[in-house]
Amino acid sequence: MSYFDAASSLPLHPVAQQALLAALDEGWADPARPHREGRRARMLLDAARETAAEAVGCRPDELWFTSSGTRALHTGIAGALAGRRRVGRQLVLSAVEHSAVLHAAAAHERAGGSVCEVGVDRTGRVNAREYGEALDPGSALACLQSANHEVGTVQPVTETAAVCAEAGVPLLVDAAQSLPWEAPPEGWSLLTASAHKWGGPSGVGLLAVRKGVRFAAPEPADERESGRAPGFENVPAIVAAAASLRAVRAEAGAEAARLRALVDRIRERVPELVPDTEVVGDPVRRLPHLVTFSCLYVDGEAVLQALDAAGFSVSSGSSCTSSTLTPSHVLRAMGVLSEGNVRVSLPPGVDEAEVNRFLSALPGVVDGVRAHVGAASLGSSAPAAGASSAPAEPTGSPAAPEPAEPAASALTVDALGKKCPVPVIELAKVIERVPVGGVVTVLADDVAARLDIPAWCEMTGHAFVDASGDAFRVRRVAASG
Amino acid sequence: MSYFDAASSLPLHPVAQQALLAALDEGWADPARPHREGRRARMLLDAARETAAEAVGCRPDELWFTSSGTRALHTGIAGALAGRRRVGRQLVLSAVEHSAVLHAAAAHERAGGSVCEVGVDRTGRVNAREYGEALDPGSALACLQSANHEVGTVQPVTETAAVCAEAGVPLLVDAAQSLPWEAPPEGWSLLTASAHKWGGPSGVGLLAVRKGVRFAAPEPADERESGRAPGFENVPAIVAAAASLRAVRAEAGAEAARLRALVDRIRERVPELVPDTEVVGDPVRRLPHLVTFSCLYVDGEAVLQALDAAGFSVSSGSSCTSSTLTPSHVLRAMGVLSEGNVRVSLPPGVDEAEVNRFLSALPGVVDGVRAHVGAASLGSSAPAAGASSAPAEPTGSPAAPEPAEPAASALTVDALGKKCPVPVIELAKVIERVPVGGVVTVLADDVAARLDIPAWCEMTGHAFVDASGDAFRVRRVAASG
């Protein structure tokens, strides 16, 4: 098995395991107690705080341990908003933040606050100037991830911090994905992270709040972690988390360079090996270990299952793999294809041979899924198709709504009730029957279609005319190749 | 070292350690992911839920894992209050609940809700009928611990559940102290507990909510734990917690009987060995492993330190050992002495010889502290003094406010600004100079004095006349012995 879902969670780092076992022996008592066992736990907790603060680049008394990265975000956002309530109630965030940030924003909105979402470009990157324009005198807090968890794009934190500082708005940086790799850029007011992303145990998040930042911890609170994280401190896990962070950082430089080269290979080879595939995210300003691509005419769940059967564990932002049945909000914000989405995030120490094995297996896996949904021959139907060359015959399969040749201008594909990737497959099947310059209307009520039909046009070179309700109009463009 | 603070936290049970190590290998992935590692984590999580549900006595789909017992209480209380907001906003609880409940109640009050506290008797026990009288049509939730964490008194949960059911008010039972020993009594609507109290790892709480109980999880929420505990599930710790709960329950019957006998010995011997000591809490309806007593004329912190130096780790509810400088709210609600308070909670497997060693060491420890504060000879100044016999001479120390014999009716001890146990010591020193039937006024602004001066009167047989502001009046009673 090759586990390529490092951005989701990692097995315990050997250093973390050692530290955990030692701290389970020495640090199980209540660090608030004055007795010997309590004092020992307190010393371990203090030492872990020093270590973590050094990795974050803050003072130990600016850093608190929470029960998860999610909790750190929820507490950080609520605390900063409450601390600046007199200033205003606007929360500014990028459209591609982690769902924990979006949940906190939704809660803030339901409680009467306002939320301003800053869009991203097609690589998933915010523009610091645009971010600055979203700030206003009522902005209480700004949030920006250091790097995106789904597509790996690194955000312009330093530049955004500068515009926030100019506007006098504190910036919370969600450093969950980047903290294992490097110290966060300067300029943050609050910072969060999660230990199981760097080989620490789950159950440990970090919340750092710079001195001077107004903060009112959400209630109920207690005396633990200076009132910012109620409940018995999980000292053994905290000790393991801090030890692990120091260990992975010591290896981060060399390992980042190695994984960066492997990811470059994936970014380059996948579009060559698998036709009609789009690699998304910034190719350069990105996390070292993460790459995401989407494949036309397949559903993400089937690809995941087939990769799983072939021995590869990956993740997907396709709608069919989520409980909400909507595509990842990150892919939506980027305006890129969501169907057949695959995120590969390499764990530290991954073998180069594993990556090569993945590249060998992927084409067969995607072909197999495409064949299963009757889309095997669609790969070359595009006017500007890349690797494959022979124009496909119209399949005339029962999925095409009109077996007889219709009036070109009236051609309509009824994919209502059909889920991703069916609407796009049906569009691809019918496009050959549309005269060049003619328009086909696709009726589709699947949420993913709003993303995938324009993305299909972008990838195949046909022209997306417009969308109105559940009707999407596409004009056939002459083959350019 | 003898660790006698089991009610605070326990080292990891060997079964928990084994389960944790196995689950760190097998259950580190995200249980929400469909890949192999994710499915394995999900299976472990499901199995742990089955195990925990069996120990709690509920269905697996009625039980969620939180990041701590405190978090389970905060979420349970907020969720139940929100779920029944249309009914009303009153929260009913006993005066001796865990501080996490009191913090949740305070937050509820600050948010505009109302809180009704039900008092307890001198053993710390609520009366179910009185509890029922506190319920009204606007009661949204009632809270009652299964047993008290400071004095061990078991609460009448079944009877209270019956009055709550009659009033149609859901009852949340905080089972943190009793769950390791036995399945909770029937009748609860919500139930909470904490794994590190039974030798599981810290970082795991339980929240059970019966089907049909209205519950609206506090925001922000996510899809984890059915929306009731946001953030990445801590699967390895949850697995260890469940395994440990099953293991301690298998041993609980025999171990409870053994510890009960050891605690009985402490309850019996301490007042014999240490004069002017009161054992508090219900002597029969109590946790098997826990006993609390208070010693006149000493401060709890000094006793804790001296016991720590002698190799015993215990806890205290005295004001001088808490960050708030007020005595434990439990002792206050019971109206018992708070000075020199010592809680002994025996860990499973404790050696009988350790308990005997403690009983041998305790008198010397308390004597040493009393001598240090100049209270060594006060033990027999009481009219109804027990073990010690010779009447003490007035010490005439500088602490006594009036070296010359004052007019009896005007005798005043000025202990303003003095902290526990000084006001009581000064009272004990001066009482010999008060004629029988005469009154002494103690001026004391330490919060503990409100509790300890009446308790001193109760213990020594003198009459507490009244308190007015910082002035406490005490009438000397003739020696009865």
Summarize the structure.
Two copies of one chain form a homodimer. By secondary structure, chain A is of the alpha/beta class.
What does this structure look like?
The structure is a homodimer of 481-residue chains. The first copy, chain A, is of the alpha/beta class. The first copy, chain A, folds into 3 domains: 2-248, Type I PLP-dependent aspartate aminotransferase-like (Major domain) (Aspartate Aminotransferase, domain 2, 3-Layer(aba) Sandwich), CATH 3.40.640; 257-377, Aspartate Aminotransferase, domain 1 (Alpha-Beta Complex), CATH 3.90.1150; 379-475, Translation Initiation Factor IF3 (2-Layer Sandwich), CATH 3.30.110.40. Helix content of chain A is 37%, strand content 15%. Chain A is built from 12 helices and 16 strands. In chain A, strands 2-8-7-6-5-3-4 form a 7-stranded mixed β-sheet, with helices on both faces. A 4-stranded mixed β-sheet of chain A has the order 13-14-16-15, with helices on one face. Residues 381-406 of chain A have low confidence and may be disordered.
